[in-house]
Amino acid sequence: MSTPGNDGLVRPNWAEADELMRLYYDTEWGMPVTDERGVFERLCLEGFQAGLSWRAVLTKRDAFRELFSGFEPEQVAALTDEDVERLASDSRIIRHRGKIRAARSNARATLRLRDLTSLQKPDGSSISLQTRTLANGLQVAPGLPALIWSFQPSSTYKPHAVSDIPSHSETSTQLAKILKQQGFTFIGPTSAFALMEAIGLVDTHLLTSHRRGSSELWEPGGQAR
Fold first, then answer.
1. Residues 126-137: tens digit of each pLDDT
2. Catalytic residue among 36, 41, 46, 197
3. Alpha-carbon distance 114 to 94, whole Å?
4. pTM exceeding the 0.85 threshold for the entire prediction
5. Which of 43, 48, 172, 218 could form a disulfide with 192 if both were Cys (CB 3.0 to 4.6 A apart)?
6. What is the rounded CA–CA span in Å between residue 155 and residue 147?
C-alpha cells in the first residue's frame, strides 16, 4: 500500500519509514548507476542485506564505504583473511564473515571481467562487455556494469500498488545465474531483482509516485526508449 506523505507526495510505505529512507527514495533509488565502483558497491550491499532490511544496510553505508576502501574493486579484492577477521569484529558494519568473504570474491570476479570483451549466455547469444550508451545519454562502463546492464528488459513494470511488483523475474534469474558462473556469490534471483530496481534497470516506482520516470529510460507506456 501507499498513501501521500506529509508533503503530499506518494511513496511506497517502505520509503516513508523515516527521513533517511525518504531521502534515499527521493534521490537515489531507481536512478541509473553505470560506473564500475557504483555497481560493485550496490552488488555487495545487496549481499549484506540478505535476510535483513535495506534500512539496516543504509544506516551503515558510510561505515561500509570507509572500511571497504570506497568499494574500489582492487582494494576489496586484496583483503586478506586477517582483514576479514578485522572487519567481522567491527560493530559499525554487518559482521557476517560469509558476506565479507563474498564481497572479496565478487571484487576478484569484477577484476576478471575487465579482461573480457564478451560473454555467452546459456541460450548461445553473446553479451558485450564493452562501453554502451543508455537512452538518457549515460555511458555504461565496460566489464561488470556492461554485463548487468545487458539484462535491461525491453519494457518495465506499471504497478498501481507494491503488491503488483514481483520479488524476482525470469530476467533476474538469468542475471543471477550468469553472475554465479563468473564467480560472484551471495547473489540470487531476488537480490538480483533488487539490484535491477535500485540501479535503474527496471522502473518499479508506483504509477502515482512523483519519482515515476525519473530515470528517463522508459516511455510512459513502459517500453524502453
1. 999 999 999 999
2. 46
3. 29
4. yes
5. 172
6. 18
